[in-house]
Design a protein that fits this description.
This protein is α/β, with parallel strands linked by helices. 45% of the residues lie in helices and 21% in strands. The protein is built from 17 helices and 18 strands. The chain has a six-stranded mixed β-sheet with strand order 5-6-7-3-8-9, with helices on both faces. Helix 7 packs antiparallel against helix 8, helix 11 packs across helix 12 and helix 16 runs antiparallel to helix 17. The longest helix is centred in the middle third of the chain and has 47 residues. The protein is flat, with a radius of gyration of 33 Å. The chain starts with a strand and ends with a helix.
C-alpha cells in the first residue's frame, strides 16, 4: 500500500506536561486505524498534529503528497457549514449523504440555521460535508457520539467502502470492531501498535501484559538469587578479613600460614562479589524487563456497608389498592444486596406506585414491605426540572477534596460529558446531560440502592453504552424501570414482574423470561431456579445461626434436621 503520511520522532508538550514522546508511525492508503487511550492521553493532540493545525516541538510529520486532502471531523458538535455554499458545490451528494444519515432533506434545502439544529443533526451534516469533499485521509474524532443506529450503520458501510485511509478516535467498541484493521494506543506519552480490530487489540494487549509479567517475575527471581549469593559471599569475605587481620602474638605465630590463606580467600571472595555484581548490572543494562503497568480500572463503587447476598428488602403478602382498583395483592418477594433487578409490567400495572412505596411516599394496603434500617435509597426519575439551573454541574455536586472532584470528573468523562460542559450553567445542558449530572450526583453520595426510572430516555446510543458500563461496576443494588430492552437485558439478571395483580421475583433476565412464556416449555426451569434460590437463602440463614447454638440443645437438633431436609430437596431439584 502507498505511504501517504509518516511521523518520525515526534515530541509534543504543553507547558511542563509531556503529551507525546518520540512518536513514530506510518499511515498507508486504505488503512483504517483506531486511535485509543485514556481521556487526556493525547489522542486529539495527535489528530491535530496530523492535520497540521498543531506543530510538533521536534520531529517531523510528512504528507505524501504535501497537499493531500484531509477530511477532519472534530470532537465538538459546534460545526460550521454554509449550507447555501455547500449546495452550490455539490447539492446532490450532500443531500444523498445527509439522507443516508437519516436527516430530513428540508433541513438543508430550506437553509436552516445551525443554531436550531441538535448536536446529532450538526454532526450528521458535518459528516455529509466531509464525504462531499472526496478526501484521501479521514481524521474522525468521536464520529458516532450523536449518531442514531441508522447513522452508525451508514458510517460503517461508507468507511468500509472508502478507498482512502482513516484514523478514528472512538469509545464505541462495536464501531471500531466493524471498521478498523489496526489500533494505535497512546499510553504514558508513547505509541504502541496492534494489528486487527478493537477486540484483537484487547486480546493482544492482555497477552503482552502476561508475557511481560512472566519475564519480569523470572528476572526478579534471578536478581534475588544473585543478591543472595553476593550476600553470602560478603559474609564469608568479612569473616576471612577478620581472621587474616587478627593481631600477631607469640601464640599465633604458628598460624601465619593460615592467616595468609585467609587473606587469599578474602580477596577471592571480593573478586567473586565484583564479578557477580558486574555481570548482573551488565545483564540489566542490556535486557532489563520493566515491571508491567497494571491497567487502571476506573470503578464507580459506593462504599456500601452490607454484604453481597444479604437481604435488604422483603415483601410478605404485599397488597396495594386505590378504592376499587387493585394493583397487586398477596405478593411475596425479596431483594438482596448487590443484585440488579429489572422492574417490568404493563403501563398502569403499578410500577411507579411500588417505587413510591419503597420511597415511603405511599403506604401499603395490606401485608408488609420491610427494608433494612441502614438502607440509603436514591431515585433517578426522568424529571430534571428540580435541578438548580443557574449552577454548574460541579457547583451542584458541591464536592470537597481533590480526590472526590477528580473521581467525579473521571465518571463524567467516561459517560461522555466533555470537560467544558461541567463549568456551564445546567440550563444550557441537554436533557441527557442533565440526567447524567443527576446520576453522578447519586454515585458521589454513595447510596446503597439506585432506583432508575427510564434513565436512557434522553441519551444517544454511545451514552447509553457508557451508562451501562458505569452502572455495571456499581457495587450496590439496582432497580431499573426501562422500555429499552437492550438496557434491561444487558444490566439486569433478575426481575420483579408485575403480572395478573401479583409482583413476583424471577430468577432470570428479560430475554429468558419472555422466551419461557412464549414456548411454555422452560417455565418449569425458571420455577425450579426460583425454588433453588429460596432454598439457598434459607440454608445460608440456618448455617449462620447453627454455629451460634449449643450442639446439645433441642434447637440445634431441629436446625440440623431442617438443613438436611432442605439440602435433600435442593439435590432433587438439581
Amino acid at each position: 500500500m502507498t505511504l501517504i503520511l509518516q511521523a518520525k520522532q515526534v515530541n509534543k508538550s504543553f507547558g511542563n506536561r509531556d503529551i507525546l514522546k518520540e512518536i513514530s508511525f506510518d499511515i498507508r492508503n486504505g488503512e483504517k486505524i483506531g486511535l485509543v487511550g485514556w481521556n487526556g492521553a493525547g489522542k486529539t493532540t495527535m489528530m491535530k498534529l496530523l492535520m497540521g493545525s498543531v506543530q510538533p516541538d521536534s520531529g517531523s510529520i510528512t504528507r505524501y503528497p504535501a497537499e493531500i486532502k484531509i477530511g477532519y471531523l472534530p470532537q465538538s458538535t459546534d460545526y460550521t457549514i454554509n449550507t447555501d455554499h455547500e449546495l452550490e458545490e455539490d447539492a446532490k451528494e450532500l443531500l444523498r449523504a445527509a439522507s443516508e444519515l437519516g436527516m430530513s432533506k428540508s433541513i438543508i434545502r430550506e437553509g436552516a440555521y445551525l443554531d436550531t439544529l441538535s448536536g446529532g443533526e450538526k454532526l450528521k451534516l458535518a459528516l455529509a460535508k466531509i464525504w462531499t469533499q472526496s478526501p484521501q485521509l479521514l481524521c474522525l474524532d468521536e464520529p458516532t457520539n450523536h449518531l442514531d443506529m441508522k447513522g452508525v450503520t451508514w458510517l460503517i458501510t461508507e468507511l468500509n467502502k472508502f478507498a482512502g485511509a482513516a484514523i478514528i478516535i472512538s469509545h464505541d467498541r462495536y464501531f471500531l470492531d466493524q471498521t478498523v484493521t489496526k489500533v494505535y494506543e497512546i499510553e504514558e506519552c508513547k505509541l504502541l501498535e496492534y494489528e486487527g480490530n478493537y477486540t484483537a487489540y484487547r486480546k493482544e494487549k492482555q497477552r503482552r501484559f502476561e508475557h511481560q509479567a512472566r519475564d519480569y517475575g523470572k528476572q526478579q527471581r534471578k536478581i534475588k538469587m544473585i543478591e543472595d549469593q553476593v550476600a553470602n559471599l560478603k559474609q564469608w569475605s568479612e569473616k576471612a578479613h577478620r581472621e587474616a587481620g587478627k593481631r600477631d602474638n607469640p601464640g599465633e605465630r604458628k598460624q601465619m600460614g593460615l592467616k595468609e590463606f585467609e587473606r587469599v580467600k578474602a580477596k577471592k571472595k571480593d573478586n567473586q562479589i565484583k564479578s557477580k555484581t558486574k555481570r548482573l548490572e551488565l545483564e540489566l543494562s542490556k535486557h532489563k524487563v520493566e515491571k508491567p503497568k497494571e491497567e487502571v480500572q476506573v470503578k464507580f463503587e459506593f462504599e456500601t456497608d452490607g454484604k453481597r447476598g444479604k437481604r435488604i428488602l422483603e415483601a410478605k403478602g404485599l397488597t396495594k389498592q386505590f378504592g376499587d382498583r387493585l394493583l397487586f395483592e398477596k405478593s411475596h418477594f425479596y431483594v438482596k444486596h448487590g443484585e440488579r433487578i429489572g422492574l417490568v409490567g404493563e403501563n398502569g400495572a403499578g410500577k411507579t406506585t411500588f417505587i413510591k412505596m419503597l420511597m415511603e411516599q405511599e403506604s401499603t394496603t395490606k401485608g408488609s414491605l420491610w427494608k433494612s434500617s441502614s438502607l440509603k435509597i436514591a431515585y433517578l426519575s426522568q424529571e430534571v426540572s428540580d435541578l438548580p439551573m443557574n449552577k454548574t454541574a460541579m457547583e451542584y455536586l458541591d464536592l470537597i477534596g481533590w480526590d472526590r472532584v477528580s473521581k467525579a470528573r473521571t465518571i463524567f468523562a467516561n459517560m461522555g460529558m466533555q470537560e467544558e460542559k461541567l463549568i456551564k450553567p445546567l440550563q444550557t445542558l441537554s436533557l441527557g446531560e442533565k440526567t447524567r449530572v443527576k446520576l453522578v450526583h447519586m454515585i458521589m453520595q454513595e447510596y446503597d440502592v439506585l432506583i432508575l426510572d427510564e434513565p436512557t430516555n434522553h441519551l444517544d446510543l454511545p451514552s447509553r453504552e457508557q451508562m451501562e458500563t458505569t452502572l455495571s461496576t456499581f457495587n450496590g443494588t439496582l432497580i431499573v424501570i426501562s422500555h429499552d430492552r437492550y438496557f434491561i437485558e444487558k444490566l439486569c439478571d433478575k426481575l420483579l414482574v408485575i403480572e395478573n395483580n401479583i409482583i413476583k421475583r424471577v430468577e432470570s433476565g428479560l430475554q429468558e423470561y419472555e422466551g419461557s412464556k412464549k414456548t411454555g416449555t422452560s417455565s418449569s426451569v425458571i420455577e425450579k431456579r426460583e425454588q433453588v434460590a429460596l432454598l439457598d437463602s434459607r440454608i445460608t440463614e440456618l448455617l449462620g445461626k447453627i454455629t451460634m447454638v449449643d450442639r446439645q440443645s433441642d434447637e440445634y437438633t431441629a436446625m440440623d434436621k431442617e438443613l438436611l431436609k432442605l439440602m435433600q430437596i435442593k439435590k432433587e431439584l438439581a
